[in-house]
Amino acid sequence: MSRTTKKIDFIKIDDFRNTTYLTLQDLINAYNKLIKLENLDEQLGCPLEVVFKALKDGIFIENIYGEIINFKCRLAYKNEELGWYFNIINGYVMVKDYKKTWWLRKDKSE
Questions:
Q1: Looking at the chain, which terminus has fewer C-beta neighbours within 10 angstroms, N or C?
Q2: pTM
Q3: At what angle do helices 48-57 and 24-44 cross, to 10 degrees?
């Protein structure tokens, strides 16, 4: 997989030997990649960083007794109406309901 962007460290203005130049095409490619990522955020209804962290570390949900429990989850898609959701042991939660019905931290402090 090739990257559209690359990390550029701080550059001293008087150090032209190590200067990284960006072409107009580099900027266009980075912009187009950003558009694709923002479109994914919109489709999911949640930032990609949050979704990946949820898949990696699990999510926290409050049960009917008020206990906050950590669940491992799987990402799934039902249809246009329902959209994206996390499958958990006892059912599912909508991805777009981040900070409403599920959290990344037990204390809900995101």
A1: N
A2: 0.75
A3: 60
- The domain ranges of the chain are 24-97
Alpha-carbon distance of 47 to 53, in angstroms, equals 10
Instruction: Give Cα 55 to chain centroid, integer Å.
Output: 10
Q: What is the pLDDT of residues 57-93, one digit of tens each?
A: 999 999 889 899 999 999 999 888 889 999 998 799 9
How far is residue 24 from each of residues 9, 31, 97, 103, measured CA to CA in Å?
A: 19, 11, 39, 40
Q: Using alpha carbons, list the distances in angstroms from residue 14 to 17, 19, 56.
A: 9, 9, 43
Q: Of 74, 38, 44, give the one whose Cα is nearest residue 59.
A: 74
Q: What phi, psi does 71 have (nearest 5°)?
A: -125, 140
Q: Which residues contact 107 (CB under 8 A, 6 or more apart)?
A: none
In the chain, the N- to C-terminal Cα span, in Å, equals 32
Q: Is 60 helix (H, G, I), strand (E, B) or coil?
A: strand
CB 1 within 8 A of CB 26: no
